[in-house]
Amino acid sequence: MSLAATAYGVAAALPSSLPTTENPAADFSDTPWWIALIKAVGIFVYLLVSTLLVIWFERRVIGRMQQRPGPNRNGPFGLLQTLADGMKSMLKEDITPANAEKLIYTAAPLIAATMAFVSFAIIPLGGTVWMFGHHTPLQVTDVPVAVLLVLAVASVGVYGIILAGWSSGSTYPLLGGLRSTAQVISYEIAMGLSLVAIFLYSGSMSTSAIVSAQSSLWYILPAFFSFAVYVITMVGETNRLPFDLAEGEGELTGGFHTEYSSMRFAMFFLGEYVNMFTVSALATTLFLGGWQAPPIISAINDNMFGGAWWGLLWFTAKLWFFMFIFVWLRGSLPRVRYDQFMRFGWKFLIPITLAWVVAVAFIRGAQLGFLGDSKLTFAGRELSVATVVIVSIVAVIALAAAWIWDDRRAARAAADDETPPEEIDPFAGGYPVPPLPGQRLAEPTQSSHRLAASRQPVLTGSTTSSTSSTSSSTAKEEDHG
């Protein structure tokens, strides 16, 4: 959250010094508390129904991609299959491991599920509508730092993952929780940096104000690089293929929720899909104009196809576009290796996004006249906006080239390290190790002799005792004979 706070400091300082356009935030002055409660319940039902549909949608789409039908038995086109699976989870036996910390073991899935719902409260699903005699936005609430609220809630949701792995009292869940936590935290940094460009363009962190600022131009065009970084990080943030490294079946079984069953497991399942909707809704709000109609349609007749309730339709269509991307990635890409994924995040995404933020800051400052006639004075010389753009592009390319060179250098170093030594100590690790082809055995070192001697009395004692007992029993038999 320190980087998010830094982003807040950078963007909050801009509106006071830069002449920005008026982007009004949502007006909740005519919204009583009971209408806010109705909207909160409506969003809860909206997300639950969307989760039921997207699970069915994912199975059907991947079934088509893999040349199989997918669910088609329960209900028309298999639409009730997800409901049947939910009922099965409710009726299954709930097993708690004997070594589990029972209170935290139960609280972890609740944290993971509820935090995913909270983030959706600041997402504008539409414009101002007439509801029960009041003019109110199709949004539960909005705050001046609404986007940072989403990042903060996502950070709290990580506690559900790590606590689930630790409280299970098992090795594989603990490793899965640690791996997932490191992954989510790492990609939250790049995600937060990718959103700084949006703050610079809109001059606000309020979601409704950002949507208002995109009335003429969606930010996916000027902030195209931020959009690409955000799409990558939102897949890593939600632990979805090809980045579902917390649930690698080959090495971690089910990961942090291996010991969970019944409704506790279903809560993790629900939280994952609701989190997918949350990051997709944030992408829709920040890059695709939110609930606003596409520019071509709004230019034809904004009143007919861009009205307040129509905005809910446009928002849902954009939301499901990102959900299709999630499903398409799962059905087409294999799981990446964990060290490659972490190196990609720390050594490539974060540095190159920092360079992009600096470039956007220079460009935005020159566009708004903050630097004086679109000029930047540096070392006594005036630089135009084009010069700044060219320098920024060169800097980004240089960072990419440096990352590729570092990756190849690391690969060469790893290849050199894989060369087996010509001479090995068979007792170096405490146990005799046979040599590889082409290797020869070295003379055991003094430490190896001490290690072998420390193990010898145990083995010799047991052998001697068994030998002496055998000899004594034999002597007794001879005496009796």
UniProtKB/TrEMBL annotation:
It is an enzyme of class 7 (translocase). It is found in: Cell membrane; Membrane. HAMAP family: NDH1_NuoH (MF_01350). Residues 415-481 are annotated as: Disordered. NDH-1 is composed of 14 different subunits. Subunits NuoA, H, J, K, L, M, N constitute the membrane sector of the complex. It comes from Terrabacter terrae. The gene is nuoH_1. This is NADH-quinone oxidoreductase subunit H. It is a multi-pass membrane protein. Pfam families: NADHdh (PF00146). NDH-1 shuttles electrons from NADH, via FMN and iron-sulfur (Fe-S) centers, to quinones in the respiratory chain. The immediate electron acceptor for the enzyme in this species is believed to be ubiquinone. Couples the redox reaction to proton translocation (for every two electrons transferred, four hydrogen ions are translocated across the cytoplasmic membrane), and thus conserves the redox energy in a proton gradient. This subunit may bind ubiquinone. PANTHER family: NADH DEHYDROGENASE SUBUNIT 1, NADH-UBIQUINONE OXIDOREDUCTASE CHAIN 1. Belongs to the complex I subunit 1 family. The chain crosses the membrane at residues 35-57, 103-123, 143-164, 185-204, 216-235, 265-288, 308-329, 341-363, 383-405.
